[in-house]
Amino acid sequence: MSDWKNLQELLIKFRDERDWAQFHNPKDLALALSIEAAELNELYLWKDAETADIEKVKEELADVISYSLLIADKYGFDISEIVADKIKKNEIKYPVSKAKGSSKKYREL
Amino acid sequence: MSDWKNLQELLIKFRDERDWAQFHNPKDLALALSIEAAELNELYLWKDAETADIEKVKEELADVISYSLLIADKYGFDISEIVADKIKKNEIKYPVSKAKGSSKKYREL
Amino acid sequence: MSDWKNLQELLIKFRDERDWAQFHNPKDLALALSIEAAELNELYLWKDAETADIEKVKEELADVISYSLLIADKYGFDISEIVADKIKKNEIKYPVSKAKGSSKKYREL
Amino acid sequence: MSDWKNLQELLIKFRDERDWAQFHNPKDLALALSIEAAELNELYLWKDAETADIEKVKEELADVISYSLLIADKYGFDISEIVADKIKKNEIKYPVSKAKGSSKKYREL
């Protein structure tokens, strides 16, 4: 079994023991994901990246990934496939010849 | 090689071909992650979850996962480990006896 | 008429000409607000604060404030009152003696 | 003195008593704003808009508006002006004839 599937099974077991599937529509899962992303960002607020608390980064990042995995499960997405597909799209949006060394968005390249 | 490692290698190759590591400090990576999370949420704005564009959900979710993988790589985190550890912590914060069927935060249980 | 009321009237006129009140429940308004906040943050992504495009900052900040005003209107909040009340609460959470010169959260002071 | 100016003065007094201007660059202020926006959204998570805790909505919305006012002060923006200007731009992006009754983004109209 793949790494993702294994984690998704742990998350679904945790969810179903608590009877939480009733709350987990994709809109609220995406909202939960962005709230966790904000909690991750809060660890860097008013400071340099180096001084963030690494143990807390682990936890908040784990929360973000957990909701990502639950959303993927909801839609039946294969994570390796959707990420690999998006990288291919980004190779077209950000060709090396134009994007190298630049932090601009593709629309401004 | 694990699924994560495989995707992380694709993402790092994409990044390094464009010489983007210079921009990728954890604070900005976390910021990028939350911007992608907002783009995912925008697909559900003003509507029910069912009417969201699934092809776009795939792309925005892939972006969120990509930045999650880049942050994990930056810190040398093992994704399976940090997610499994967080689930264990959540089992204590949300005991089945109190959390079953409830959408409350652990502080309010 | 107060400044807020004046802007709220402009926003409500804009909304009602387009028959958009049907979409403007507080949950989606709050979601829209956080999406606009992410667009504001994107102007600072991968760069120092000084190099952000000020004309775009104006627009994204205006969007954030607009949704704030629409949410306040939805609930009938008086903006001057809720902000002044929150400052008073923060004076207790962050007493000068403990908080001076520190960027820590009140729980860590 | 305008309502905005009055609140901005209260916020600046609060900030300066704590010597916090050193942390308040626009990038971190925008980040703080989006974290507060996420806290506002959390009040609606897993539930319908009607069941959110209104007293907490007041507080989180006040936080969002406070950071908005501090960002506006940082750049010397006149809030009434930037919001009115943005409404004018939106009147062009969302003409009544096309946008009436539709929740689509301007690019899709």
Structure description:
- Four copies of one chain form a homotetramer.
- The first copy, chain A, is an all-alpha fold and 109 residues long.
- The first copy, chain A, has a domain at 3-77: Helix Hairpins (Orthogonal Bundle), CATH 1.10.287.
- Chain A is built from five helices and no strands.
- In chain A, helix 1 (3-17) packs across helix 3 (54-75) and helix 2 runs antiparallel to helix 3.
- The interface between A and B is large, with 65 and 65 residues.
Rg of chain A to the nearest angstrom? 17 Å
Structural class of chain A: mainly alpha
Work out the number of β strands of chain A.
0
**String of helices and strands of chain A:** HHHHH
Distance linking N and C termini of chain A: 41 Å
Q: Helix count of chain A, per DSSP?
A: 5
CATH architecture of one domain in chain A: Orthogonal Bundle
What low-confidence regions of chain A span 5 or more consecutive residues with pLDDT below 50?
Answer: none
CATH homology superfamily of one domain in chain A: MazG-like
| Quaternary structure | homotetramer
Average per-residue pLDDT of chain A, rounded, comes to 96
- CATH hierarchy class name of one domain in chain A: Mainly Alpha
